[in-house]
Structures are given as structure tokens and as C-alpha cells.
Design a protein that fits this description.
Blueprint: H1 2-12, H2 19-35, H3 38-75
Length: 76
């Protein structure tokens, strides 16, 4: 069921553009990365990857809850 919800999320849930909001963390990431040694850069990259994964899971969980709420309203 979770795979089905993930497919529905991918098909119907479109993330907002928010170009300026997305640009700020990327600029900060690159500014910090330039000042770090290689080992610290890898840790920073891991942190960024974990943040992206958390955001994706949160978005999917929110979609699932909204879908379940919609089904509950339809059945009432």
C-alpha cells in the first residue's frame, strides 16, 4: 500500500517552485563547503542528503494523511 501511495504522490503532488527559498540553502551550503576540509565536506554532504530524505518522507506522509482524510470524508 505504501508503494501505491508513493506512486500517487509522485503523480499528483507537485512541489512548489520556491526558487529563491531553495537557492538560499544551496548558496549557504556552497559557502560552507569551500571552507571545509575533505572529511568535513563528506559529513556536510551526508547531512544534506539526510535532510532531503527527511523532506521527501515528510511530504509523502503528509500526502498519505490527506488522502486518508479525503477517503474518510467521502465515506461519511
Amino acid at each position: 500500500m505504501y508503494d501505491y501511495m508513493r506512486a500517487l504522490h509522485g503523480r499528483f503532488c507537485q512541489e512548489p517552485e520556491l526558487r529563491e527559498v531553495r537557492r538560499a540553502p544551496e548558496e549557504a551550503y556552497h559557502a560552507i563547503q569551500e571552507k571545509l576540509v575533505r572529511q568535513d565536506q563528506e559529513a556536510l554532504l551526508q547531512l544534506a542528503n539526510l535532510e532531503n530524505e527527511l523532506l521527501e518522507e515528510t511530504s509523502l506522509a503528509s500526502f498519505v494523511v490527506g488522502f486518508q482524510l479525503g477517503l474518510g470524508m467521502q465515506e461519511s
